[in-house]
Amino acid sequence: MFKKCAQIFTITLALALTVSACTKRVDTHGNIVKQSQLDRILIGKHTQRDVASILGSPSATGTFNQKRWYYFTEKSAVHSMGDTELLEREIIIFDFNDKGTVTAMTFKNKDDARTVIPTKETTETHGQTMGVVDQFIDNLSRGL
C-alpha cells in the first residue's frame, strides 16, 4: 500500500514539474504609463516639471538633445529554456522647447524598431599597423 502511494506521488510530482517547465514567465520593465496619465499632459501648456510629477522620472533623456525625454515600457516572455520573446514595447517621446514646455508627444512600438546588423570591420589605429620594433623606436623618439 505504501509503495503504491509513493509511486503515485512520484508520478504526480514528475507530471507537475514537467507541465510547469513548459510555462512562460512575463516580465515588465520600464515605466508603466497609463492612458489616463497621458491625457492629463497638454502640449504647449505643461512643463518638464509637470511631466515628471505625472509620469515620474524619464527612462532616458536625449544624449545630444536634453530637451527630449523617453519613457520605455517593455513586456517580454521568458520561456523554460531561457529564450526571451519580446511581446510589447512602447516608447513615449516628449520634446520640450527652451522654456521647458512640452512641444510634442510621439509614440513608438516594437513595429517601429530597426534591425542593426553588426559589422566585423574594425578601425585601424596607429599601434595596430606598427610592429613591435617600430613601436619601441616611436616611444623612444617621443621621450626625447
Number of helices: 5
Binned, the helix content reads: 25-40%
Percent strand: 25-35%
Q: Termini, distance in Å? A: 93 Å
- The helix-and-strand class reads alpha+beta
Write up what this structure looks like.
- It contains 5 helices and 5 strands; from the N terminus they run H-E-H-H-E-E-E-E-H-H.
- It is of the alpha+beta class and 144 residues long.
- Strands 1, 2, 3, 4 and 5 form a 5-stranded antiparallel β-sheet that branches.
- The mean pLDDT is 83.
Write the topology of this structure.
Layout: H1 2-21, E1 25-30, H2 35-39, H3 48-55, E2 60-61, E3 68-78, E4 84-96, E5 102-109, H4 126-129, H5 132-143
Antiparallel strand pairs: 1-3, 2-3, 3-4, 4-5
Task: Supply database-style keywords.
single chain; 144 residues; alpha+beta; five-stranded antiparallel sheet; 5 helices
